[in-house]
Task: structure prediction
Amino acid sequence: MLQIENLHASVEDKDILKGIDLQIGAGEVHAIMGPNGSGKSTLASVIAGNEDYEMTEGNLLLEGEDISELDPEERAHHGVFLSFQYPVEIPGVSVTNFVKTAINETRKAQGMEEMPAAEMLKKIREKAALLEIDRKFLSRSLNEGFSGGEKKRNEIFQMAMLEPKLAILDETDSGLDIDALRIVANGVNKLRSENNAVLVITHYQRLLDYIVPDKVHVLMDGKIVKTGDKDLALKLEEKGYDWIKEEVKTA
Result:
């Protein structure tokens, strides 16, 4: 689904990513962990096409297609979804209208007609029920006055409606209590299929208790220095990152 080869990226002429190699297959969930400043959110931003970051070297392929020259909107139309760490508020635009517009813009970019109103309404009801979202929630202005958990649940609803090929969850567990964390994770697990892939970026192992990854990658100083299964996340929770730093020094 996603193939990254020797990815280098910088911001304001400062090198952040220094040769990332990563492959995520369809149906897989991969987690990226690492200390602050290691480049985790930069990686998410580069994949999504954030223009503040410059990709200076390497290849970025989605289903075999080079997306490195596409702008963020075009990447979204190709099936890339990024869940923000701090979602923005948009007063006056309801959750439902925002999602309708996003879906129809993607359909337009793909040469399709707008989704019929009855079909859209049916899909909204199905996804809201799947994620246990109250209908009143959908009429509220996007993220305005939302709690942290409501903002994250809203993003998972957007993900459910847009059905992306690649979903990137950038520290989506930030600031969530246990109940909100379970709701968000449950939504991600319900949406997981053989037609999509998920990249979870997190500081904490606790999220991976609920969204069990196929692989865990440790990012340090702009490079992936270790890869393992979910047990690696448990070890990081117990021992921190110093033991990996020592491994890297002696390698």
Notes: The chain has nine helices and twelve strands. The CA atoms of residues 135 and 225 lie 45 Å apart. The longest strand covers residues 14-24.
